[in-house]
Amino acid sequence: MGRVTRGRRQLPALAALIGALLLAACSNEPSAPTVDAPAVDVGPEHVHALGVNPADDSLMIATHYGLFRAAAGEDTPERVGDSYQDTMGFTVVGPDRFLGSGHPDARTDLPPLLGLIRSNDAGRSWEQVSLLGEADFHVLRAQGARIYGFDATQSRLLASDDGGRRWQERTPPAPVIDLAVEPANPSALVASTEAGLFSSRDGGERWRPLSRELAGLLAWTTDALILLDGAGRVHRSRDGGRSFEAVGEIGGRPAALTEHEGDLYAALHSNVVKTSADLGRSWRVRVRQ
Fold first, then answer.
1. What is the pLDDT of residue 29?
2. Are residues 201 and 232 in the same domain?
3. CA 182 to CA 219: how far, in whole Å?
4. Among candidates 154, 180, 182, which has minimal Cα distance to 167?
5. Which of 129, 147, 63 lies closest to 102, judged by CA?
6. How do residues 211-224 score in pLDDT, each as one tens digit?
7. What's the pLDDT score for residue 22?
8. What is the predicted pLDDT for the residue at 21?
9. What is the pLDDT of residue 36?
10. Do both 6 and 62 map to the same domain?
11. What is each CA distance from 137 to 13, 15, 129, 151, 203, in whole angstroms?
12. Sheet containing 273-276: order of strands
């Protein structure tokens, strides 16, 4: 049970999982490079990313129409600030400190690609850091001082050790769906790509294949690497992605996945967010739409 086989007969299954994930990504893509506020603010639609603010344990929900916050113990999210920017990439880097990317609110005069942006006030305001007009990070991950970003405009993986002001380019093994960084080693990565799973021990300089049969959204806790595939099935690895076991399901197509202090948070395309305290075996609703 659980060890990934690498036979070519499994490739159609991978194609189906990739198709589900890419269809989900396309449904979340903006129809224009800037975002108009909807006539009625219906809440967090088209979720791109999740994070937990360690300042107060609130759940942050990055969406096509801006950033939302669900306070600890509350299952109804509220808009943060008055921006409707399409926050494609998003990660929490400290108490009230976030990084983001995507496309601007149409009420601004910013170029269509935000590059890397930063908030030091829990998402109420944002400032430019780098690559304005040059990059659209669909994946942002940070571990310690290291930041990784996958720029979807040029299919390039970038790494920074100075808060995102300067970047070094890496060549990913294939177009990236998601990234996970080992909690104890910021140079150790697992990339979920259109060609399967790959790992790197040197910050993305070199890659080796882990699985040609699995792909999905990733989260790396101190206890396990979690993969959520396009059908909503949860896979768990205790050896850094060399083998996986199927452990549960979230009950729908996934849109985003993150972890905080061992707990998992997954957004569905119904805009419901669920959480798991047992590494993906069981789930309960955290945010209702």
1. 46
2. yes
3. 9
4. 154
5. 63
6. 999 999 999 999 99
7. 55
8. 61
9. 73
10. no
11. 28, 24, 13, 4, 17
12. 254-260, 263-268, 273-276, 284-287
Q: Which two tokens stand for residue 186?
A: 């910021």
Give me 260's structure tokens.
């905080």
Per the domain annotation, does 131 fall within a domain? yes
97 close to 120: Cβ distance less than 8 angstroms: yes
Mark which of 170, 191, 226 sits at the end of a domain. Answer: 170
The amino acid sitting at 242 is R
Residue 190 shares a structural domain with residue 114: no
For residue 184, the tally of other CB atoms under 10 A from its CB is 10
Statement to judge: residues 50 and 163 lie in one domain: yes
- Answer yes or no: do 249 and 147 share one domain: no
Strand order, beta sheet including 97-103 = 86-94, 97-103, 116-119, 127-130
Provide the b/e sequence for 146-162 (b: ≥16 CB within 10 Å). Answer: bbbbbbbeeebbbbbee
pTM of the model: 0.89
- Looking at residue 43, what is its pLDDT? 75
What pLDDT shows up at residue 144? 86
Provide the domain limits for residue 230: 1-30+179-289
Look-up of token digits 């979807």: 152
Looking up tokens 């990236």, which residue turns up?
A: 176
Q: Which of residues 170, 205, 220 is at a domain's end?
A: 170
DSSP 8-52: GGGHHHHHHHHHHHHHHHHHHS-SSSSBPPPSS--SS-SEEEEEE
Which CATH number covers residue 187?
Answer: 2.120.10.30
- Domain with 124 in it: what CATH number? 2.120.10.10
Dihedral angle computed from the Cα positions of residues 202, 120, 124 and 45, in that order, rounded to the nearest 10 degrees: 10
Examine residue 40 and state whether it is found in any structural domain, yes or no: no
Domain count, the chain: 2
pLDDT < 50 stretches in the chain: 1-11, 24, 26-31
- Give the long-range contacts of residues 206-209, CB within 8 A, separation 24 or more: 207/172, 207/173, 209/173
